[in-house]
Amino acid sequence: MLQVSARLTSFARKVAGETRRTAAVLLTSRDRGQDLVEYGVAVAVVAVVVLVTIQAFGAGIAAFFTRLLTHFAGLG
To answer: CA separation (Å) from 32 to 21, 42, 48, 59?
Structure first.
C-alpha cells in the first residue's frame, strides 16, 4: 500500500511540474495565461482527488480483482 502511495505522489508531482512548464511556455497574453493557470489548477485538483480515492478504495479494489481472478481461474 505504501509503495502505491509513493507512486501516486510521484505521478501527481510530475503532472504538476508538466502543468507549470506548459503554462510557462504558452504564456503569450494575460488572458491566455490566466486560462492556462486555471487549467493547471483543475489538473492538480483532479490528480489529488484521484490520489485520495485510490488511497481510500485501493485495498477494496485490489481485493475485488483478486476475487475476480480466482473466480475466472476456477472456470478454466
So the answer is: 15, 15, 24, 41
- Residue 40 sits at the vertex; the CA angle it makes with 25 and 61, to the nearest 5 degrees, is 130
Q: What is the model's pLDDT at position 76?
A: 63
With a threshold of 0.85, does the pTM exceed it?
Answer: no
The predicted-structure confidence for 21-65, as pLDDT tens digits, reads as follows 766 666 555 666 678 889 999 999 999 999 999 889 888 888 999
Under 8 Å between Cβ of 68 and 22: no
DSSP 76: -
DSSP of 1-67, one letter per residue? -HHHHHHHHHHHHHHHHHHHHHHHHH--SHHHHHHHHHHHHHHHHHHHHHHHHHHHHHHHHHHHHHH
CA 39/CA 36 separation, integer angstroms:
5
